[in-house]
Write a structure and sequence with these properties.
Strands 3-4-2-1-5-6 form a 6-stranded mixed β-sheet. The radius of gyration is 16 Å and the shape is globular. It contains 7 helices and 6 strands. Strand 3 and strand 4 form a beta hairpin. The chain is α/β, with parallel strands linked by helices. It has a single domain, classed as Rossmann fold (3-Layer(aba) Sandwich), CATH 3.40.50. Helix 1 packs across helix 5.
Length: 168
């Protein structure tokens, strides 16, 4: 299964009162870490798409040692359009099913095709929460390394942050 996730859509569902500019990076990073953990548990793949008003063209960066890729749209292509293009690319390249996580009507409408399932951010967050609860009560929990910091070195994290901010 391949998840294509509208990152800000999920974050705004989780934080309905809004996210301050100062909190944004931490919230975005927390979501990526949660998705890495969730996806790894099922052996799936995920692409998390965030809007960018800085990048000249869309950028996608695989998170090392995971099945998660983080993409940023560009100032000329909003995340919704990038998500639609990614769905088409994945449909052409694989026989796997695709789950599109978004509450946006245009994204959901574009996901009305065979092998594509629409998932609301609320449902996706409930699944992540259910997984985290299961992990918390697992006797193996202290042996598991699931945070991004456990998967990549500090230099890679720094480079990813620079790319995300449009300076890399």
């Amino acid at each position: 299964m391949i998840y294509i996730i509208d990152g800000y859509n999920v974050l705004h569902t989780r934080e309905p009162d809004g996210i301050t500019r100062d909190e944004l990076e931490d919230k975005r990073q927390a979501l990526v870490e949660e998705v890495i953990s969730y996806i790894a548990s099922a052996g799936d793949e995920a692409i998390i798409v965030f809007d960018s008003t800085v990048a000249e063209s869309p950028e996608c960066h695989p998170v090392p040692n995971t099945a998660v890729t983080v993409c940023y749209s560009s100032k000329s292509m909003i995340a919704d359009i990038l998500i639609g293009k990614l769905v088409q690319q994945k449909l052409a390249a694989t026989k796997d099913g695709i789950k599109v996580v978004s509450a946006d009507w245009e994204v959901q409408k574009g996901a009305l095709m065979k092998r594509v399932e629409r998932v609301t951010p609320r449902h996706f967050l409930a699944e992540i929460k259910k997984f985290a609860k299961k992990l918390a009560f697992s006797p193996e929990k202290d042996k598991m390394r699931w945070k991004l910091e456990h998967k990549v070195d500090v230099e890679t994290l720094r480079k990813l942050e620079e790319m995300r901010r449009g300076r890399g």
